[in-house]
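Action item from last week, closing it out:
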Amino acid sequence: QVQLVESGGGLVQAGGSLRLSCAISGRTLSNYVMGWFRQAPGKDRAFLAAIAWNGGSTTYAGAVKGRFTISIDNTKNTVFLQINSLKTDDTAVYHCAATAGTYSGTYVRTEQYNYWGQGTQVTVSS
């Protein structure tokens, strides 16, 4: 059973940066697509970014492109989300997600992912 554990969230001032991590364990296949989503209070879970297991393909939500960077260290089974120039609107629970397979498509929908982490809270103060 694939398990995902996020870390790196916290309280940060607007304009600051954070690097979120997602550790993957229990994987049995060689290829996964990894994604990051976030869910703010009272809102639906929103896609942020996705990456192929080999790091060769990425997709970003238009609203975060240029400010968020997804990366992967597949030797350590860890995917990262670097967030720069944080805004108060970035306050949310950030979730890591995974689905087995080779990267083909955009992977922007929650139903495309089979495995989810519990999330890490990011709070941005003004």
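Closing note: The mean pLDDT is 94.
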